[in-house]
Amino acid sequence: MQNKTILITGATNGIGLETARGLARQGAHLVLVGRDTAKSERIVADLKADTHNEKIDLLIADLSVQAAIRALAAQVLARYPRLDVLVNNAGGVFDPRTTTADGIETTWAVNHLAYFLLTNLLLERLKASTPARVVSVSSAAHMGGSLRIEDPEYKNGGYTSFGAYSQSKLANVLFTVELARRLAGTGVTANSLHPGFVRTGFGTRTMGWLSPIVSVVTRLGMRADQGAATSIYLASSPDVEGVSGRYFSEKKPARVSAQAQDADLARRLWALSEKQCGIE
Ligand SMILES: NC(=O)c1ccc[n+]([C@@H]2O[C@H](COP(=O)([O-])OP(=O)(O)OC[C@H]3O[C@@H](n4cnc5c(N)ncnc54)[C@H](OP(=O)(O)O)[C@@H]3O)[C@@H](O)[C@H]2O)c1
Q1: In this structure, what are the phi and psi dihedrals at residue 99, rounded to the nearest 5 degrees?
Q2: Which domain range does residue 77 map to?
């Protein structure tokens, strides 16, 4: 991965951090996205010391805010003439329902719209850097998800943290399917993945009174470096050169839910997401 430039969101904790560590060890030039400057600078210093790779840059953005995503993309386009791999990883589960500074339900904004908007803003640069890859971290939780295409933000009530989370992870799979269809023949591939049940910070600070319980339950998960294996595989392995539109688990293609195979639903999600992000 010596001459590859890889952008990773949510690289300051859990699976994203270990994805960064694994790809840094392979010699890639990393552009990490964090949201807390002090924490992110500490992480980058630790990663450089641990991996002996000095080519690790840091950009700061709160991915719940569309203006911040636009500013992030502008910095990437200004600073990096190549972008070989984009890893959409930052995400979370939130209880109770909250909205972002843009007034969008937080799970939908961070887990789906941020993937959608950042990818679209960087797409021309990826196309100019072929062969290039978009890797989106989804979850097996998408299996329990149902896309509420008329009300994905639960504006009309009925919000549950698991419902909103599993819907957003289904959106990651559908987004990948439609992105791959649109990118056919361009040399840019798009795949999504389930990382496994992983011991991370996931849900340990964002689930209200349930957070301490989530903290105990997640201790049963695999280590974060094990959870990063499929992300690293999709970002770097020659085995998946040219493979696109697929969903992986344990570094192998895996089954998706019935809704996740609905190409018409994927197109409708794309149109809705364009509208919500204000892009054509
Ligand atoms: N853990 C699991 O078992 C599991 C299973 C299936 C799928 N996943 C998926 O794996 C991905 C990574 O999750 P994780 O388990 O590694 O969780 P984590 O330890 O909580 O890490 C989440 C990362 O996302 C960042 N982030 C969250 N909200 C953000 C925002 N608004 N703006 C910018 N960055 C933001 C966090 O930044 P800070 O460091 O500043 O908090 C952190 O770096 C998620 O997409 C999740 O859905 C996880």
Answers
A1: -120, 155
A2: 5-277
